[in-house]
Amino acid sequence: MNRRPPSVLRTDLELRVAGYLVRYYFRVRSKLVSLAPLGDTEGWETRMTIGTIDESQRKAARVVGFAYLFALPPAIFAEFYVRAQLIASGDAAQTARNIMEHERLFRLGTASNLTVFALDVVLIITLYVVLMPVNRTLALLATCWCLIDTSTLVFVTLSDFDVLRILSGANYLQAFEANRLQALSRLALSAHFDAYNVGLVLAGLRSTVFCYLWLKSRFIPSALSVWGIAASFLMGASAFLIIIFPELTKVVPVEIYGAPIFFFELTMGFWLLLKGLRS
Predict the structure, then answer these.
(1) 1 inside domain
(2) What does the alpha-carbon distance between residue 140 and residue 235 come to, in Å, rounded to a whole number?
(3) 95 within some domain
(4) What is the pTM of this model?
(5) Residue 183 structural domain
(6) pLDDT (tens digit per residue) in 39-82
(7) Quick count: other Cβ atoms within 10 Å of Cβ 125?
(8) To 5 degrees, how large is the angle CA 62–CA 68–CA 74?
(9) Which of the chain's termini has less CB crowding within 10 Å, N or C?
């Protein structure tokens, strides 16, 4: 009686298991093909991969909603309330007096901006976690734009401390006339405005890309994604045009081109916190 060596038996077993796995793969794939729309087999398999949501994505999406909602109040307070109260258009002397009389309010505005930037870092990381499976390259591109945007705004926020330093009345400033110090402080405030527009351009770019990924993923309603794309593009394009044509600020203030993205982020925040991602 011929007995086959153990090595041959193991080889036969491995071949049988491999054959079974191959047959099982093609059986499952044939079922997917039968369910797919006609002529869209590859697209169907891609959507099956994109539509699979793990728990880490769901948790990250709720953090995105939290970051959207909690970043809006300090941003509005710093850029609209504080500056509207303290900066007198065309009057450097009055602006300087307002800042020194309400120094605590000015410092609160600076601290609020820093809070927003910290939340932006949380937002960008969690957005990458949620949308990276959709398109890793685009998600990474948007993340880099956001990091540059946030770094730029953090750097220019430091110029707010220059304003306080210039108007502090320190002994080493006695060599300068009062009107010259007031002009220098107003110059620093203008630098904040210009850098803020640069930040809005980059923010518009990264938000447009992220909203495109939201649309492609179908994790949120398509109408909301399209709204985000349009609002993001409007914000970035408007800020870019104002850099070239600064006189446009008198015709199209930030309240106009910033309102659509504000309401989009507000809606997104509530949607992700209350509804989460949909498969």
Answers:
(1) no
(2) 21
(3) yes
(4) 0.76
(5) 56-274
(6) 444 443 444 444 567 888 999 999 999 999 999 999 999 988 99
(7) 16
(8) 135
(9) N
